[in-house]
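Board notes (copied after class):
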Amino acid sequence: MTVQKLGEEQNVELGGLRFVVTHRAFGEDGGPSIEVFGDVEGSQVQVLRFDCFRKAPHYHYDPKGKNVNKSLDPAEVGDVLDWSLEQIRFHIPEMLKTAGFDDLARTIDVQVLTPGVEKVRDAVAAAAPKS
């Protein structure tokens, strides 16, 4: 099955990370996707991805490398987009370490990232496919 990007890609730079926001379709599922890129040994690497899909929401540690995929249960986490933004706002250094990017985690400016996360939410709305 092929993943199809819908709508217009949005980019947000915050606290030493780049967030690429799209909406994706994957078969009968899909929804907002937040790709998190950081500088790893001089290259921009996708270090995390949050797929806020309607049917099978999940997130990835190191999506282009070891790709550890974790399912989300909306009954447990509530609104999946809100949960994802909260992880970015309050837990991104720990998540980067879990993904194996300790050096990058130490460079994140959480004082810029924490209040700026609403820009990522705005990018999700701007990236939505037009009817």
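Comment from the instructor: Strands lie at 3-14, 17-26, 29-40, 43-51, 58-61, 68-71. The helical segments are 74-77, 80-98, 102-107, 110-127.
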